[in-house]
User: What shape does this take?
Amino acid sequence: MLNPSEGKVLPEWIDHNGHMNLAYYVLAFDLATDQFFDNFGIDQAYRDTTGCSTFAGDIHVYYKRELHEGDAFTVTSTLLGFDEKRIRFFNQMFRADDGSEVALMESLSLHVDLTERRVCPMHEPLPTKLAAVQAAQGTIEIPAEIGRTIQKPPVYVGNGQ
Assistant: This one.
């Protein structure tokens, strides 16, 4: 496993409920994703030489426990799969003091040509490096939340149904 990202809840991340605001969970996950992607080659050098990067295509965040000002946390990143244009992965956030899971984010990133602003195939050696990351992870335990969508109640559409 690649080294986890580490962080601490800053005072400005606290909302009116006295805990870390949901936007800052996503920020912490995004910063960890940058570190994760740097490890296998989606870094500034890749962007400079290929003119390509990644854009978020879809994310699903699951909040499990609160964090408060000053709480330290770690974020791990795990590759779920990839093809020539997409990278699917998840991040898990844990309290640094007791290791309890705080939140999880499943993501699908799209490989994009920055000139055309369109999804395009990855350049070598990126697919080879992703395959190496996948192989190095071995068998992974996939959290139950992966692949879920928002469940009932049904969406109210305003026509009495």
Observations:
- The chain has three helices and six strands.
